Every structure is written in structure tokens, then in C-alpha cells.
């Protein structure tokens, strides 16, 4: 009985020591995982903040591009002069002194487009504003023009519900397409994402990404064609 009682007490003591060791180990693991979770949370918060700032910067640049395009095309951005009434001067009134205050400096534009795109837009505007003369049957203007010869040709392009509607077809994310540029380059691409006013495509040759704005699709700077996913 004494031997059994001694073994019983020894096992109780060992069990208590094992419980204490396991409890300390669990507490250390808890503190370690809590610190790792807090660090991961802070890293994710910083990453999210940087992504939001980058997205806002891209939207700001896009809005500035659209504003510049509207100023070049004159779409509802012209400041109309304010009409003022001029009263007749009475015979005894003094002659008004002209205002010699310094005129405000003209506003400066920060051109975000390339020189080639600006010149192309100006040429298109000049052709649209120039009066059309009757063309003779033998003149080149009377001949049917090919799609590449019509600079004023515009395509219907818009984005709805995360999908692109272009040339009477719908395009979605991860869809395989052909991207044709004005210099007759044909690239095999995949739509990686669809934004609010632009899409991102990824080249299948080198996996580089390109951003295409809706204005570029509407003006025909880039043309999208469907292709099979294989």
C-alpha cells in the first residue's frame, strides 16, 4: 500500500508539472501568434492605403486627360463672355478713365498627351470645321474611303457592370482578344481587368500590361477583335 501510494503521488506530481509546462507553452504560442497577426494587419493596412492612393492618382490623371480633350475639342468648356449694359454718358459727366490694371496671365495647359496625339486631334478638328466642297466624280474625295482613311471615324465604346461594350460586342475580364493599333500592329492579348473608364490588357508574348482608355477606342487609336482562347 505504501508503494502504491508513493507511485500515486509521483504520478500526480508529474501530471501537475506536465500541465504547467503545456499551459506555459500555449501562452507563449498565443502571444507569438497575436504579435504576428497584429504585424500582418498593419502591413495589410499600409498596402491597402498605398493601393488606394495609386488608384486615386490614376483616376486624377484620367480626369485631367479627359478635361484636356474637352478643352481641345471645345465641348461645353468654353467660358462665355458676360453681357454688360453700357449706359449713355450724359453731357456733363466726366469722361470715363480706362482701366489700366494688369490683365491676368492666360491659363497654362499641362499637356498630358503626346505631340503626335495632339496634332492628330487638331488635324481632325480642322477637317471637321473646313467647309465641304462638291467633289467631282474623278476627284479622290468622291471615291469610297477605306476604314483606315477616315480619321474622323468613331467607334461606340462604353463600360457597364464591369464589362466592355465595343463595336456591338461585349468583352469581359480574362477574354482573349486581338489588339490592333494604328501602325498596323496586331497583338495577341488577354483582358486582365475592366475599370471605370479604361481597360488593362496583358500581352501573351511577354506578359506585359497595357492600359487602353475608352477615348482611344472611340477615336480608333486601338481596335479590339475577338479571338479563340486556344
Question: Can you describe this structure in just a few lines?
Answer:
With about 230 residues, this protein is an alpha+beta fold. Helices cover about 40% and strands about 20% of the residues.
What is the residue-mean pLDDT, rounded to a whole number? 77
Contiguous helical run count:
3
Strand order of the largest sheet: 7-6-5-4-8
Number of strands: 8
Largest sheet: 5 strands, antiparallel
Cα end-to-end separation: 83 Å
Uncertain residue segments: 134-152
Q: Encode the helix/strand succession as letters.
A: HHEEEEEEEHE
Question: Which strand-content bin applies to the residues?
Answer: 15-25%
Cα gyration radius (Å): 35 Å
Shape: elongated
InterPro entries: Sds3
Pfam family, one: Sds3
Subcellular location: Nucleus
Organism: Neotoma lepida (Desert woodrat)
Structure notes:
With 230 residues, this protein is of the alpha+beta class. Among the domains are: 1-75; 157-226, SH3 type barrels, CATH 2.30.30. Helices cover 40% and strands 18% of the residues. It has three helices and eight strands, in the order H-H-E-E-E-E-E-E-E-H-E. It has helices at residues 2-73, 115-129, 214-219; strands at residues 157-160, 163-166, 169-171, 176-181, 186-194, 198-203, 209-213, 222-226. The protein is elongated, with a radius of gyration of 35 Å. The model is unreliable at 134-152 (pLDDT under 50). InterPro entries: Sds3.
